[in-house]
Every structure is written in structure tokens, then in C-alpha cells.
Amino acid sequence: MTKSEIHSAIFRAAAAGIAIFSLAACASAPPGPGGGRDYSTAYLGPNGEILYTSVPGASKKRRAEVLKPAPEPQWNWFGDGVSGAPAIMISVGAQTATFYKGGVEVGRTQISTGREGFLTPTGSFSVIEKSPEHLSTLYGDYVDKSGEVVVSNVSVQTDKRPPGTHFEGAPMPCFLRITGPVGMHAGYLPGFPASHGCIRLPKEAALRFYENARVGTPVRIVP
What we know:
Blueprint: H1 3-16, E1 42-44, E2 50-52, H2 60-63, E3 75-77, E4 86-91, E5 96-101, E6 104-110, E7 123-126, E8 129-144, E9 149-155, E10 165-179, E11 182-186, E12 199-201, H3 203-212, E13 218-222
Parallel strand pairs: 4-13, 11-12
Antiparallel strand pairs: 1-2, 3-6, 4-5, 5-6, 7-13, 8-9, 8-10, 10-11
């Protein structure tokens, strides 16, 4: 049995007995060759298309452009109609997220976690906030009054805002916050860890996780 399988077995057993409080509620570029960035903040558009903002001077409507093709992410879900306390297991090493109900696996998906320098934290957490159309407060673009991107893929913590611009956060649909600024959300999966620390899921998988998790749902992240 692999390390990941052992963690999964232990978590399934624990999840079956976990009491959940009923508190229901409803971005960054992967490194390019040599560690550089080939493109800017990647996220999902309103129609599920992969978008990014890396065209200074382009209008809001035209600054979103389709990224290079990425491997089709694999995911499955068979939890509709299944009862039981929800729980989530995330494996950074395997780049997978697994959803449980009553200790029984009902969904599994490929993910993209934090890249080097922005590693996703490991340990025991829980869903502390749900936001269907969340916008990042840390990463995004500096935009002028006309809606044109002046500086793309910025961090408000390190990148100085040019005069006459304002910050627009990167979209993070189906956001499940688990600790600090880190959460699970729909996003671009290039096939390797690429985020600023969040856990990106395919759009439809993120929607299933979002609909079936509630505030208080335990989340275990293992190396």
C-alpha cells in the first residue's frame, strides 16, 4: 500500500465518525521553461473557457485570451443522492482531491496546487468560508479607468500600483476557503503545481465539491 493509500484509508475511517456543524452558505501563471513565466494569471471565464490577462493596454473584453492547450483534467463524481458527513482529502504528491460522504469516496479529481515559493500548506483544516464568485484580494491586475490592463499578474503585497489605476482581483469561482488566503476553486490545470498556494480544480469538479461541502467540512492535506 502506498503512502497516499494509507493516508486515504486513515482519513476515510476518521471521516465516518466526524460530527459536522450545519453552517451552510453558497491565479497565477505556471512556471515556463527554465522557471520563468510564459503567461499571466490563469482562471476560468464565464463560459468555462480558460482565460488569462497578459496583454497590457487591451480592453477588458479583449484582454482575456485562450491559453495554450493543457492536458484534459481527469475527474469523476458519483455522490449525487449519497448521504453522510462530507470530508475532503487532498494529496499534494499525487495532485488529487478526493471527496467523501460518511467515509465513502464519492468523487476524485486531478488538481493543481502551489508552485515552488507558494507551496500549499499541509495538515488538518476545515472549510471556513464559501464564495460562489470569489475574487482574489492578493493577485490580479492593475487596471485604468477605461478598463484597460496597465500591469497584469500583480501581487498587491509586492507590486506598486501605478497612478490612476485600481486593482482587480483574479476570479476564483466556487471558492472554498480553508485557511488564510488559501482555498479550493475552479481554475486552470496545466498538469503540474502552478498556483499561488490555492488548490485548483476542473470547473465541473469544483462545482460538485462546492455544492456538497459546507462550512465546517474537514479538509486534510497531505504531502
